[in-house]
Amino acid sequence: MPATLHHLLDEGSFPLRVLTALDDEVLERPLSWVHSSDLLDPTPWLEPGTLLLTNGAQFSADPDAADAVAYCRRLRAHGVAGLGFATEIIHDRVPEALVRAGEETGLPVVEIARRAPFIGIIRFVADIIATDRAARFSWLLDAQRAVARAAVRDDGLREILHTLSRLLGAWVDLYDAVGGRLSLPGLRAAPDDIEAEVGREVRRLLERRTAASLVVPAAGGALLQTIGQSSRLRGVLAVGGSQPLDPAGKDLVATVVALASIALEQQRNVQSSVRAVRAGVLEMLLAGSDDTARRTADAALGGLPEAPYVVGVIRDAADSSGLLDELDLVSSDPRRMFSAERGADVVVLLSETAEGPLAALAERRGLSVGTARHDEGEAVAVALDRAGHAAREAPPGAVRAYAELAGRGLVEMLRDRGGEVLARTLLQPLEALPPAERRRLRESARVWLEANGAGDPAARALGIHRHTLKARLAHLEQLLGLDLSTFAARAELWAALELEP
Fold this sequence. Notes:
Layout: H1 5-10, E1 16-18, H2 24-27, E2 33-36, E3 50-54, H3 65-77, E4 82-86, H4 96-105, E5 109-112, H5 118-151, H6 156-168, E6 171-175, H7 192-207, E7 213-216, E8 222-229, E9 232-240, H8 247-286, H9 290-300, E10 309-314, H10 323-330, E11 337-342, E12 345-350, H11 355-365, E13 368-374, H12 380-393, E14 398-401, H13 402-416, H14 419-427, H15 435-450, H16 455-462, H17 466-480, H18 487-499
Parallel strand pairs: 2-3, 3-4, 4-5, 13-14
Antiparallel strand pairs: 1-5, 6-9, 7-8, 8-9, 10-12, 10-13, 11-12
Helix pairs in contact: 3-4, 5-6, 5-8, 6-8, 8-9, 14-18, 15-16, 15-17, 15-18, 16-17
């Protein structure tokens, strides 16, 4: 517990009397030290949080109100925690002008009566400060041991950060080398209302390209610390809570940053080998060697998701800075999420409960992601092709499911891919006809195609002779350059009529 005015006033062995209003915030404000001075401006020799003691030699018995206000304002602006004024030495009582000035400026004024020695007050506060520092040092040693134990667990980096958050009672965020916030399931993250400010400062810190730390006052005094060497920054650790970190808390963060740097370097070396194994397992799955792939994954990786699962394709993701590191953190359990590089893309296999983190990742990084369901007995290659097609249709920052595309049909897909332009090109020769003739040819073609190319039913539906319909279709063939006796030409004409706006 730090030394406070509350401790001093509650001691009882000092003849102290509070002359100004004090609320709980003022009473619990930590004291950094106690200093005595009779100078009109002692601030050059004081640090914020100091309790200043004086016998009032700098004041007359009835000081000018403006001078008293200026004196108190200087102390308050410098962060002085309070003013102790000794009486029965030079002044019989604390000047009223000084008391009013303390009230006006928010500087606590306390009377020290009966010629009480300042050294007793100084020693009392110094003892509390020393005890508190010893306690914090002991806490720091225990905390460092705790994070060291966490570092040697299977998922060392994640355990270190969880331990740091628990010990400090703070939120913890990890950012990659380009300033993207990594998703760490189960870890308390920065509140949404301050994350944007923290993210901006993280990116500004990384732009310096040198190891550094930064405190963000706008985010409650959050501490940002780069991870890695100046020549090769790995990211930034951000820690914050309801109060700025004290020196012991900052020392613990420094310890965690050092361990995280080591863990990331070790993890990078190991993961390069693990990623090669993952890529091999994926190729075995695509080749249909499911049993071999699963035996390899069980032995080297810890398993694979069980069918039914979702196959996802993250387009052009292999070059996305920090993405593979983030996937390694998110997919610590390969039975929930397995990821592997394949060309320029990253392929993921997800249990149905793990789709949420993938969607969040796509949105935050602006990635195009496609997914397809894979059921027991189906070929993984088929699901991968479907997911790849869905990924090509997905806009940046979104996940597109193949089932969604399949449910819309081929015509709607063609429409999305610019099919209307091709339809207008194919039917362009009809524009030279009079409107009535153009409508007759289109209607005749539609009815005939809906009748599966049968002339008699189509003619009856149109209310015309079958020879008249035959003549119209021959005219249409001539205009469009199509041979409607072939299925391909009929399908092309039908699609053009469906797509035409």
